[in-house]
Amino acid sequence: MQFTSVGFLSVEFTYQPRSNMRLPLILRRMSVAVASAAALALTVAGQAGASPTAVQPPGSAPAALLAESGMQSPEALAVLQKILGAAALGPLGLPEFGVTTPQDFMYPAPTLGCGVGETPVTVTVASAQAGPNFPLPPFIERGQLRFQALPAHVDFPKQSGLSLIWFNTTTFKGGMEPLNDVLLGVPTMSKTVATGAGTVLAALYGDVTYQSGKTCFALPTVGTFTA
Asked: How far apart are CA 211 and CA 92, in angstroms?
């Protein structure tokens, strides 16, 4: 028995006496092997005019093959993904795993216009949570901060007019964001902001309107957070 390697495939020849060899069958197997190897080589090389790709040595990591073929041609990448299987694709696009805890603002924001019972004065507590935070909610990616606030008032919120001003002292980038996320039609008084990694200064203020018609006006509170 003899094995002959052609491209990525191996063709098996069974030794038989010359008088019994089935030459057409052997030639047909060789043709299929050569054609398959040539098709795969042309696919990896990419579209017409693309530079040829160097053949990877035996034992090369699947990730290296994917990266090289992806630079040459998207079609080649798709072919190799099917050949190598899902195991070569890493975490299948899942977010980065991690667990974080909320970081509080420096002090609760004094809040006017609502409160517990008939008291027209209360406070709004606020915090920021960094990523990665997955798989437990809230889902937050690395380089993000999720800001949330909650006035001490017992009622169902109708609309959030809270706002956030932030500045990253590491990247010198900043912005202003409304805390207007909604879950099942109910304002959550939160917002996930792509602040980037670093130390983030933030100020939070604004109002929240409730189903009863009352509105809580939160005066500014500030904080420093690590993203």
From this structure: 43
What beta strand segments (E) does 30-156 contain?
Answer: 103-104, 109-112, 121-130, 145-151
Q: What is the pLDDT of residues 26-79, one digit of tens each?
A: 445 544 444 444 444 444 444 444 444 444 444 444 455 445 545 556 665 565
- Per the confidence metrics, is the pTM higher than 0.85? no
To which residue do tokens 């169902």 refer? 156
Give the containing element (helix H, strand E) for 182. strand 182-183
Q: How far is CA 100 from CA 144, 157, 223, in A?
A: 12, 27, 17
154, 114 Cβ separation under 8 angstroms = no
3-state secondary structure 127-140: EEEECCEECCCCCE
- Read off the DSSP letter of residue 81: H
| CA proximity to 206, closest of 173, 175, 176 | 176
